[in-house]
Amino acid sequence: MAVLEILKFPHPVLRQKAEPVAEIDDRIRRLVSDMIETMLKAPGVGLAANQVGVPVRVVVVDLSVGEDPDARLVLVNPEIVCGEGSICMEEGCLSVPDLRENVTRCSRVVVRGLDLDGRPVEVEGEELLAVALQHELDHLDGVLFIDHLSQLKRSRYVAKRKKLLAEAAG
Ligand code: GNR
Ligand code: NI
């Protein structure tokens, strides 16, 4: 197991559409175990593989951040099959430093995917779980939560971030 580096905006891999996993092999199992360790260390409630530089369709979610072993979800090739209702919640992202903003999403989703044994799983999530699932699945399509903000808020953040990076680079 290893804690991986979490890529930060504007790293281009965060904008890549992740490829479906063709076979759940040792590489994928190692990736998942490293992603879980990385998520818990951050700490965060979810992580998508592109955030650690691997553009494949794998996400992990754990609203308990390691407190409850039953709360951990690993989803390979996940897809939202049903979304309904509406919820506005303050979001942050491990790949989008120094920003928390309200985002409106579905308040209930059903997600289908595979577990680490390749068995089909269906997860129903409401409220924070629904938000976290949508946030992670967005990552697999190269979408960040800032894309759900107003153009003004997003461009302000992008400008602030570019200024900070330019200053750090000297
Ligand atoms: O740790 C995280 N918290 C969070 C809070 C509100 C909405 C979404 C999230 S996901 C985030 C971790 C992360 O960036 N996952 O991609
Ligand atoms: Ni995120």
Can you give a write-up of this model?
- The protein is of the alpha+beta class and 170 residues long.
- It has a single domain, classed as Peptide Deformylase (Alpha-Beta Complex).
- Helix content is 28%, strand content 31%.
- The chain has three helices and seven strands.
- A five-stranded antiparallel β-sheet has the order 1-2-3-6-7.
- Strand 4 and strand 5 form a beta hairpin.
- The protein starts with 25 loop residues before the first helix and ends with a helix.
- It binds ligand GNR and nickel (II) ion.
- The site of ligand GNR has 16 residues, from strand 1, strand 4 and helix 2.
Fold blueprint:
Elements: H1 26-41, E1 46-48, E2 58-62, E3 72-84, E4 87-93, E5 96-105, E6 108-114, E7 120-126, H2 128-140, H3 151-169
Antiparallel strand pairs: 1-2, 2-3, 3-6, 4-5, 6-7
The chain binds ligand GNR and nickel (II) ion.
Summed up, what is this model?
The protein is α+β, with helices and mostly antiparallel strands and 170 residues long.
Could you name the key traits of this structure?
single chain; five-stranded antiparallel sheet; 3 helices; Peptide Deformylase; two-stranded antiparallel ribbon; binds nickel (II) ion; 170 residues; 7 strands; binds ligand GNR; alpha+beta
How are helices and strands ordered from N to C?
HEEEEEEEHH
Shape: globular
What summary fits the major beta sheet? 5 strands, antiparallel
List ligands, each type once.
Answer: ligand GNR, nickel (II) ion
Q: What is the level 1 CATH name?
A: Alpha Beta
Structural domain count: 1
Task: Please name the CATH architecture.
Answer: Alpha-Beta Complex
Task: Output mean pLDDT.
Answer: 97
Count of helical segments? Answer: 3
Looking at CATH, the homologous superfamily is: Peptide deformylase
Which structural class matches the secondary elements? alpha+beta
Number of strands: 7
Oligomeric state of shown chains: single chain
Q: Quote the beta fraction.
A: 25-35%
CATH topology: Peptide Deformylase
Please give the order of strands in the largest beta sheet.
Answer: 1-2-3-6-7
Helix content: 25-40%
Report the C-alpha radius of gyration, rounded: 16 Å
Through-space gap between termini: 35 Å
